[in-house]
Design a protein that fits this description.
The complex is a heterodimer. Helices cover 43% and strands 22% of the residues of chain A. Chain A has ten helices and twelve strands. Chain A is globular. The chains are: A alpha/beta, B alpha/beta. At the A-B interface, strand 6, helix 9, helix 10 and strand 12 of A face helix 8, helix 14, strand 18, strand 19 and helix 15 of B.
Chain lengths: 287, 500
Amino acid sequence: MSRLPITKTPKPYVGGAFIRSESGRTFAVKDAAGNFFANIPQCTRKDLRNAVEAAAKAGPGWAKRTAYNRGQILYRLGEMLEARRQEMIDVHVQLGGPKGPVTKAIDTAIDRLIYYAGWADKYEQLLGNVNPVASPHFNFTVTEPMGVIGVIAPDFPPLLPLISLIAPAIVSGNTVVALASEQVPYPAVLLGEMLATSDLPGGVVNILTGFRKELVPTFATHTHLRAIVGAVGADDRKALELGAAESVKRTHFVPAEGVNWLDDSAQSLFAIRDTLESKTTWHPIGA
Amino acid sequence: MPTLTPDRKTTRPSRPAPELIFGDLWEFDPAPETADPKLKPRYDFFINGQFVPAKSGKYFDSVNPANEQKLAEIALAGKDDVDAAYAAAHKAFDTTWGKMPGRERAKYIYRIARLLQDRAREFAVAETLDGGKPIKESRDFDVPMAAAHFFYHAGWADKLEYVAPGRRVAPLGVVGQVIPWNFPLLMLAWKLAPALAMGNCVVLKPAETTSITCLKLAEILQDADLPPGVVNFVTGFGETGAAVMGHPTAVKVAFTGSTEVGKIIMRSLAGSGKKMTMELGGKAANIVFDDAPIDQAVEGIVNGIFFNQGHVCCAGSRLLVHEPVADKVITKLKTRIKVLRVGDPIDKNTDIGAINSREQLKKISELVDSGVKEGAEIFQPACKLPTKGFYFRPTIFSNVSMSHRIAREEIFGPVLSILTFRTVDEAIEKANNTAFGLSAGVWTDKGSRILKMSTELKAGVVWANTYNKFDPTSPFGGYKESGFGREGGRQGLLDYCKLV
């Protein structure tokens, strides 16, 4: 008799821990062959609020890390993903992804982490500067992370856009509450396991699984989220921008479909800038 | 009482400095600025390079807030006027401005700067008559700074490949802009100069109480031979503003004004795909530590809150003073504001001019009443106010707590709320305990503390041992509900382009 394998209970990674939804709800996901794959927690707005709280708590410590340290931790996340690359490919294929494109997307995701890891101690040298004001003052502009950022990932591909959206936000010291692909949430759960072993402090990245229609309204209106970035459809975009108006939240969206996430244009210094504030300080020059 | 720095031992016995007595003992002769503002009795829109009357034939009055006399009548724009402005802008973008090499655009913008400098005194007088600000401010700050903004941005027009490292930039198209009444000409320059340098065309609406210098600038645009339609001005009230912001031709909108209106605009444009920048309200903390140079700090506090009658979004309206020096600072502050000259803005000796409108005066009075009612201690000098016009005495409130309305809401008037703190952490906590985040001030002799405060304060501009300084090279804009986007510097240009 062959051995019965142990199946894994998928749990999203929130506040440095693997959680079930406070609601106790789950939704079943099937594999490509139509067989039961796993039950995924169907997170609620309460889970989202808890995740924002965890992210807010982790924020100041993460932002105070040195840029060198944040760069190394992102690089370490790339190492963790590389080490489990095959597992990530296999599970994508099992869930219906075609092997060739899946492999390419996952390799790109790993390379993208390395790309942003390298930016950690460089973006400031390009986005900030000293300003030659016409008065006897020393005046300089530096960037600062905004705080807690909401990330809405598109359904496809399940992993690459999620990483493409999270990495530029956290590299500068922001913390993130992300909503995983609704259609294929499992790779995001797997990413959570890698985050947990990557030296990234708990609460810096929090990934929820669940239904967009249940969670988008709370993403839109939660005032502790200082910005929302994501790949969203027209209706979600409108709802998020309406909610954003209530607390003058920053929003940066691309369409849910039609973005070439594999292309180099999907990674940029200016994606980092999207979740930064500029701060300008003046001081008189004198004795 | 805890202090952060040890007392300095002085070897000489201290004696009080002799006090200079001004006030009524020393009458000033009137010293009005007499340059001719060259006002027209009636101002039309500026569309497609021409002055165009309102299609509806409707006009409204612009009043001098210093004496409530009518200065001119201003065309009231309806939807069809706004449509005409956008059509002109769109055409200009497609046929001239959008295609013009940057070095040529630069020369037009340089011309605007130079022509404005030529007519600086005339514009300063017009600005003061229309808005109520002291002539010394419009003459020494608003107009020269507006010219400086055009001069600075002109030079960017042919250097745009340096704006976004690693990426190429392109203009957006036609942008819609709505500006406030507190710095009418300067806000106009802040909006126009970067938009034009980047190659965009503009439809702009000034505030209804201060349209005159905007329409006077249109004369300069004509003299500069700016191609028709590159810049279009429509005038009117909130309804006109909404038409400018919501117009389908506008690919980007830029707004400076209250947080309340900013939110309305954000709601109305949700899902529209338009790019936005918002420069909204503030409730800045001006933080004075016990080791600060107190006399300079007092000057900074006065400048921070009484500059432009406090009609400044980044005004230092909350003074956070370190407990060990609170009494000293407040005493000096009271002495100082007793000698501020409140009155006719056109007089060169006036420190505090007229409140911009009756409506704003009402709002200030209402908030000041709430401060008294909620138990804060009010101080106002006994200065004489002109009998006609809108004026408000410089006002300071002590014993203010964080829950008071005067500590939370933007007053936009010459009203200072004073709170105290004991530790650095308490100062940071109180300073950041607001929905706003536009600016902050820090007064201390300790460099490391300045850098710590500057890092911890959630504000877009931090003035250390100074206040209310501005420069075209220096990005300005807020955190949180004070808006997003920056104006000035390389950062400001990035808000007027797309990356290609």
